[in-house]
């Protein structure tokens, strides 16, 4: 008999097999899977009372909390679509997303409640419900989440009839080149993604996940599904602060964390400053997605901090994860420095996914670590399309393949290495320069905490590399010293020709550095982003 792949299955399995096991630790709030399920049922009954039906949108604006986790499953039982919102946006961004998505109900955390006020009168949302509503003064007609939830029964909810091809979540991209685009992911997209990722990350019922990566970011890379289904304990994190992360890591016996490279960088800095007070006896897996990390990061994490480093690659449009850099059996005897180099790459395709790097003619590039092409992906995780944007959908999904816009090379072992985003490649005097390669060199400088390399206009070469650098506290370094340091380690044409120093680099909600924002400051006087 055919059984549709529905995301409600993951919580059902956890309740059946791990009902009395701790499911969520959210500071003072601790609930078992039985108790989590009861709260989810109450939420489903409450949403039903408000008129939510299959296909309706329920948006969630919250940090990583118990309430956010249960929000997904509470909506799914109705066949509703979740719209997780980036907590770092501006009120006008929320206005666009909530109205464009046709959101009916907005669940918002009390700490973020004020972000809605400036655009409230323009919203088409029917009801706003506030997590921790008793801690703030509510506007008329808004509801306090806990008081409202308590009105409804905890008994099993009679679920809507659903198909695995139904849309489960609508996730909006950052919109650095225009309005955000809503990525439609189905139950099937998310379900199969969960199955493949939990295999590669070795997820089990003995895991304790610390939710470092925001859950609004592609459903926390799908973590809310495969850790739930495996009965793992999930520790919530409101603030992405290194001291809080290390405190929770040691207090709760955390075994795995997902995060962006910038967050890992902050943890490394904190470790260096507090290593005497930090235990290294935990078997922690740290999963990193985003730009390729410097190899020095990997050596630090594994050799000194005692954690296992796992690099992955993915995009919102692919549910998201598609490759991993976990060392394969045939390379386990390689020297540590060779293995670290492998781990810094995007790696090889996960189960149930096809990934290749192709040239402009659509042919696969040679596995020589030299020929550059674009990563294209075919999998069950590729989105249905962009919500109400058929034109943009057709631009990225062609002949059954999703075109990522990421440029890469392939080595002789079949490992993919991302050399840059298509838009981030610097073309100076006709030479292609990988901003990631140059950034990794700059991270080797002892005074550099963070660095971003971007293109800026140049009268002779068209454009040239420029470094934007954050300097470590107590250190001093000049522009000339940075340039000389880079020139000693890469070809001169790749080295930055100028440097600016800032206290902080602009980042997305998931911790990625916003290079487009940095570039715009240098190119705004030009008619186009090419000189």
Automatic annotation (TrEMBL):
PANTHER family: ACYL-ACTIVATING ENZYME (PTHR43859), BUTANOATE--COA LIGASE AAE1-RELATED (PTHR43859:SF4)
InterPro entries, alphabetized: AMP-bd_C (IPR025110), AMP-bd_C_sf (IPR045851), AMP-binding_CS (IPR020845), AMP-dep_synth/lig_dom (IPR000873), ANL_N_sf (IPR042099)
Residues in AMP-binding enzyme C-terminal domain copies: 437-512
Protein name: AMP-dependent synthetase
Organism classification: Bacteria, Bacillati, Bacillota, Bacilli, Bacillales
Annotated family: Belongs to the ATP-dependent AMP-binding enzyme family.
Swiss-Prot/TrEMBL keywords: Fatty acid metabolism, Ligase, Lipid metabolism
Gene Ontology terms describing biological process: fatty acid metabolic process
Annotated TM spans: none
């Amino acid at each position: 008999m055919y059984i549709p792949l529905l995301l409600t299955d993951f919580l059902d399995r956890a309740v059946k097999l791990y009902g009395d096991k701790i499911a969520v630790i959210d500071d003072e709030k601790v609930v078992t899977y039985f108790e989590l399920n009861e709260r989810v049922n109450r939420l489903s009954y409450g949403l039903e009372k408000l008129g939510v039906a299959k296909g309706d949108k329920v948006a969630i604006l919250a940090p990583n909390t118990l309430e956010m986790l249960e929000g997904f499953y509470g909506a799914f039982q109705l066949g509703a679509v979740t719209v997780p919102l980036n907590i770092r946006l501006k009120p006008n961004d929320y206005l666009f997303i909530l109205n464009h998505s046709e959101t009916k109900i907005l669940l918002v955390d009390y700490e973020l409640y004020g972000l809605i006020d400036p655009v409230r009168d323009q919203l088409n949302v029917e009801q706003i419900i506030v997590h921790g509503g008793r801690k703030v003064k509510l506007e008329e007609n808004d509801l306090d989440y806990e008081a409202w939830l308590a009105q409804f029964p905890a008994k099993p909810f009679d679920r809507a009839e659903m198909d695995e091809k139904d849309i489960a979540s609508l996730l909006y991209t950052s919109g650095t080149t225009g309005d955000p685009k809503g990525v439609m992911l189905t139950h099937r997209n998310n379900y199969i993604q969960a199955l493949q990722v939990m295999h590669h990350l070795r997820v089990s019922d003995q895991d304790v996940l610390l939710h470092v990566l925001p859950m609004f970011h592609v459903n926390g890379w799908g973590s809310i599904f495969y850790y739930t289904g495996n009965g793992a304990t999930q520790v919530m994190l409101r603030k992405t602060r290194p001291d809080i992360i290390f405190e929770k890591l040691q207090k709760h016996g955390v075994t795995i964390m997902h995060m962006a490279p910038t967050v890992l960088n902050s943890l490394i800095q904190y470790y260096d400053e507090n290593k005497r007070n930090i235990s290294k006896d935990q078997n922690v897996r740290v999963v990193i997605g985003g730009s390729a990390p410097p190899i020095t990061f990997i050596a630090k994490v594994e050799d000194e901090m005692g954690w296992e480093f796992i690099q992955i690659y993915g995009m919102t449009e692919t549910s998201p994860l598609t490759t991993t850099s976990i060392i394969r059996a045939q390379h386990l005897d390689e020297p540590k420095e060779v293995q670290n180099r492998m781990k810094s790459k995007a790696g090889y395709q996960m189960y149930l996914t096809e990934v290749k790097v192709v040239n402009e003619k659509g042919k696969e590039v040679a596995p020589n670590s030299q020929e550059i092409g674009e990563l294209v992906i075919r999998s069950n995780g590729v989105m249905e399309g962009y919500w109400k944007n058929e034109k943009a959908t057709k631009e990225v999904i062609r002949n059954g393949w999703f075109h990522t816009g990421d440029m890469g090379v392939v080595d002789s072992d079949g490992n993919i290495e991302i050399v840059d985003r298509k838009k981030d490649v610097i073309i100076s005097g006709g030479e292609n320069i990988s901003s990631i390669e140059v950034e990794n060199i700059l991270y080797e400088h002892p005074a550099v905490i963070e660095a971003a390399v971007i293109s800026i206009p140049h009268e002779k070469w068209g454009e040239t590399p420029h470094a934007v650098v954050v300097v470590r506290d107590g250190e001093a370094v000049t522009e000339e010293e940075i340039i000389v340091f880079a020139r000693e380690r890469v070809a001169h044409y790749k080295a930055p020709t100028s440097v600016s120093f800032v206290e902080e680099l602009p980042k997305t909600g998931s911790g990625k550095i916003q290079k487009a924002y940095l570039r715009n400051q240098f190119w705004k006087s030009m008619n186009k982003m090419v000189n």
